[in-house]
Amino acid sequence: MGDFWPVADVLAHLAGRWHVQRTVRDLTSGDEGRFEGTTLFRPLPEGGLLHEESGMFSWQGVARPAERTLRFLPGGSPGTADVRFADGRPFHQLDLTAGHHVADHPCAADLYRGEYTVRDADHWRTVWRVGGPAKDLVLTTDYVREG
To answer: Rounded to whole angstroms, what are the CA distances from 63 to 54, 60, 82?
Structure first.
């Protein structure tokens, strides 16, 4: 892939409100779900951003509210982030200075591999591939800046 949009400071870039659309495909069963909602990146008192996502997730004909919270903290080098779960456990590092980043997160017997792509100032995408003994998923999320 080409046409990446470099981001000098990932925290400054992500700050604000984003419209989110996600597809979740189970490659084993062929089932597909959809999430639509918003993600708000707001400042944390100690520095960094709190990522709060909420919306509706539809799976196998059933729609229900869904939410998640992450923390994006200043990373080890300028303009990068240390992404953590809400409880502080490490998730992955994030460096979008080239407009593209691949992150791995081992979780028990599963491996989560995420690819971040920044298209321009107001559009970015993540594609997470989840593989393991009980999971074979692809989660594709498009973010569009609001306001």
So the answer is: 13, 8, 32
For residue range 94-131, list pLDDT tens digits in order. Answer: 999 999 999 999 988 999 999 999 999 999 999 999 99
Alpha helix locations (H) across the chain?
10-14
| pLDDT digits 0-9 by tens, 41-80 | 999 999 999 999 999 999 999 999 999 999 999 999 989 9
Hey, what are 50's tokens? 């709190």
Give the single-character DSSP code of 12.
H
- Give the C-alpha separation, 43 to 65, whole Å: 24
Distance CA 69, CA 129 (A): 20
Characterize 111-142 residue by residue with b for buried, 16 or more Cβ atoms within 10 angstroms of its Cβ, and e for exposed: ebebebbbeeeeebebbbbbeeeebebebebb
- The token pair at 29 is 């069963």
Please state the pTM of the whole predicted model. Answer: 0.95
